[in-house]
Design a protein that fits this description.
With 354 residues, the chain is an alpha/beta fold. 28% of the residues lie in helices and 18% in strands. The strands form two sheets. The chain has a nine-stranded mixed sheet. It has a three-stranded antiparallel sheet with strand order 10-11-12, with no helix packed on it. It starts with 18 loop residues before the first helix and ends with a strand. Bound molecules: iron/sulfur cluster (SF4).
């Protein structure tokens, strides 16, 4: 199992939001303050105390640091990178809604987060605040008017950063729509601010319509005791938990880390759901891995982990056509039928030769 590491930084009582605050906390050198603030012009800086406590200030390659501390490389944009890498804008019929697939919509009641991930695929859209009251009402009307919608995915921004009363109002409005069968909430709050998962916030998620929480978690060290307690609170309230992980260079792009992460998730009653290939958001090239490497990692996980702990490796096709599985295929056409490959790479005819 993972080693949970928590480092005490003197004076760390609030969210760090500037290059100077990062330098004061010993997370960057004073000479890098201006560069961090320039990166913050593209995506705000926000490191909660829980995240700061996880970073080893003496390890320049610390995987938690890499995810949250701005880096001058964010200012370099590769030709293939885009402001809207998965085509949200083209599929947005009104503010706060992305309707890409017939039976599901994204509802984005806010674009802010408690902590900002430097690789965020919506990094050009997040950080601006809460959806205006009349825009939220229009977004809910849109969902109410489209009876083909089966599932509503609250995303953003981080929906669990909303005040419990506002969140409860949104859940109740969706719960009252007979055609909505499932509500899913994408969040990083149980990891970045686990203390926020109190009774009031969990009570706000109670509804007749099943509510799932998909936790974004990229490294086993993120599942601290406090994060585990937050997940326990959700699971004990009857809320199923799914795990979403982004494959990130220098964070989790090795089989040992991924295996540890998936096992830790299952131990926290989180079903690993997706391993996302990193989207081509602007200024994120230093996080990218190749698809060939991702497929090789999935092959290694297949041999190491129970099916319960296997995520599906997916790519959101740039521009907006949607998400597809891109993991390795174990079945191939052969001269006289099919050939199936086992976890050790051995090939077997199918059906078996008599
Ligand atoms: S929590 Fe999600 S939306 Fe917010 S910065 Fe991280 S990846 Fe982006």
């Amino acid at each position: 199992m993972n080693t949970v590491k928590s480092i005490v930084h003197p004076g760390n009582t609030g969210t760090l939001r500037s290059g100077a605050a990062l330098a004061d906390a010993g997370l960057i050198a004073p000479r890098n303050i201006a560069g961090a603030d320039r990166a913050a012009g593209r995506l705000p800086i926000a490191l909660t105390p829980d995240i700061v406590a996880l970073i080893d200030p003496f390890d320049a390659e610390d995987p938690i640091r890499r995810q949250f501390v701005p880096d001058a490389r964010e200012l370099a944009v590769s030709p293939e990178e885009r402001a809207d890498p998965i085509g949200d804008v083209a599929h947005s019929p009104c503010p706060g809604i992305v309707h890409r697939y017939p039976d599901r919509v994204l509802l984005m009641p806010l674009t802010s987060c408690l902590a900002y991930c430097r690789f965020c695929f919506r990094r050009d859209a997040v950080g601006t605040g809460v959806l205006a009251e009349d825009d939220l009402a229009a977004a809910l009307d849109y969902i109410g008017d489209h009876e083909e919608i089966w599932e509503v995915i609250l995303s953003g921004g981080d929906p669990l950063a909303l005040a419990p009363r506002r969140l409860a109002t949104i859940i109740a409005a969706l719960d009252a729509m007979p055609h909505i069968a499932t509500i899913r909430i994408h969040s990083r709050v149980p990891v970045v601010a686990p203390g926020r998962m109190n009774e009031a916030l969990i009570a706000a998620l109670k509804s007749e319509t099943p509510v799932y929480v998909a936790l974004h978690c990229n490294h086993p060290r993120e599942l601290t005791e406090a994060a585990r307690a937050a997940c326990r609170g959700l699971a004990d309230a009857g809320i199923p938990l799914l795990g979403q992980t982004v494959l990130l260079r220098g964070v989790n792009d090795d089989a040992d880390t991924l295996e540890n992460l998936m096992r830790t998730m299952v131990a926290c009653r989180i079903k690993p759901y997706y391993l996302h290939h990193g989207d081509l958001a602007r200024g994120t090239a230093h996080f990218h891995t190749t698809i060939a490497h991702g497929r090789e990692l999935m092959r290694q996980l297949r041999g190491r982990l129970s099916g319960l702990a296997q995520p599906t490796y997916v790519l959101d096709i740039p521009g907006g056509p949607g998400k597809v599985p891109i993991g390795p295929c174990y079945l191939a056409e052969a001269a006289d039928g099919l050939e199936v490959e086992d976890c050790e790479g051995r090939k077997h005819p199918y059906p078996p030769v008599a």
